[in-house]
Request: fold
Amino acid sequence: MSDIKQEIYFDNNATTPVCDEAREAVALSFDHRYANPSSYHAAGARARFAIETARENVAGLIGASPGEIFFTSSGTEANNLAINGVVKYFKNVLGMKNLSVVTSEIEHHSIINALKAVSGEVEVRFVKPRCDGYVDAGSVSSAIDESTVLVCMMMANNETGVIMPYEQVGELCARRGVLFHCDAVCASGKLKYDVKKFHCDTLSVSSHKLYGPKGAACLYKRRGVSFLPMIFGGHQENDMRAGTENLHSIAGFSAACLKANNSFDSNIAHYEKLKKLFILNLHTFMPCAVLNVESFTGLANTVSVSFDFADEHEANAFMFNLDTMGLYVSSGAACASLANLPSHVLLAMGINSLRARSSLRISFGTQNSEDEIIKSLEIIKRAYEMVKRFGKA
Ligand code: PLP
Reply:
């Protein structure tokens, strides 16, 4: 008998499994494309061709031109590049002083902490979300003044799945002459958007959130937008991001983007079916469950739900029990769980610390099944009852 317990992976906003097409592309990249893409010889040219093909495929997913795509190692790096690149350009090239950047309190830490790191050079204004997790475009507009050079807002929140008014914010930024960086890391592959149809100046996408391998991501930079690089060295990525390209991950990213484009509608239909089944059965299994955001809005694959634990020990024991029973979910963003802090997103929405600690972020993937939904609800019920009866499993 196998000693591997059955596992249900519902943490697809943290990372997704690598799809077959991306695996195959990565494997192929080791064969004839191992050379340095900057090398002059034919082997180098093959590797260069693979990178440029990938640039076209990634651009194709978001409606960009290939020349507007700059590969990075992660969504985190792409967000840092957008922020540092713009701030440094305004300060060092244009010599401007008294600059401000507007963002929201519920951004990913790769935005919040990158902005905190430049807060000595620019004033950073954090807009509060509403209690339903939505950042109002009017609040963003009110925070902008003549010192504002950049607005950073995510397309959809990775913890709650709430979709932000990115089109409105893009439009108001264009009208007021402010650059707009949109963090589309969580939304890409789950929302259909086209960078030519809404206004944004820079936008980030990450491979491992859409069934590609880790180690590749990109920053889209609209043609004509100026910024400075953050990493210096060779001339890779049109002088915007030095360092030998991670061709293998980029090849996988490329295949994952092609697949995300081709199977978008069926993926969304699958997520919707799973989410509906989960939500419709939730209260039968867990009468005390409270959805942190409106049930059927937001990203089709994301549910944020909280329970009535009496203290943080019960909440921790619940997470421990779920893990022991093989249900993999998270209580917030994966990168924050290492610090064991309550979700900054839920706190900003006005949810109290205990409720935030008693929350689960459940995010479905294309590999999940309806059968797993019912099993997961049984596990949640059992894990909860054990906490209420005995504490830890
Ligand atoms: N932005 C959002 C909204 C995310 O959800 C994440 C990852 O969870 C990131 C940025 C960072 O992306 P990466 O994991 O590729 O660094």
Remarks:
- Residues 74-76, 79, 108, 110, 154, 158, 183, 185-186, 206, 217, 333 surround pyridoxal-5'-phosphate (CB under 6 Å).
- The two ends are 23 Å apart (CA to CA).
